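Journal club side-thread
Mid-discussion, someone asked how the predicted structure for our own chain would compare to the paper's figures. Pasting it here so we can look after the session.
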Amino acid sequence: MKNYNVIVIGAGAGLEIVSKALSSGLNVALVEKGKVGGTCLNVGCVPSKMLIYPADRIREIEEAKKLGIHARIDHIDFSAIMERMRKAVKDGQNSIEKEIKNSKNLDFYNAEAHFIGEYVLETKNEKIRGEKIFIVSGARHIIPLPKAWIRLNI
């Protein structure tokens, strides 16, 4: 069983904890079952801003005539907009993966982890123990099934 000073579950906001622990000279394990970067990089802040920005420019052009500016949009290359967004996300992931790979005193487990005892996790059929374990796995929304909806009698 490998022993760590710190285990962090979640390679989104959890990367801040990893960075602080490594800069303090601690031995760290990072566990992430999905893509590194968390919600913000992969499906939240970054991609949404990359799509909102061109939409805002389109709206400005459409509204410019109110200011006496006559312009028109001949074509919107939605494929190019999407490709730009996907490239930004992939570049972010690659940058994080490179830093993880080049970090000393950091082991990366790209898999699920389950607690199997006090301070002990199992991931990829390997047991790891941490003096401190941080669960920074984020959250997922859930859409309730119709049978679970509460009906209000107003």
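Post-session note: The chain has four helices and six strands.
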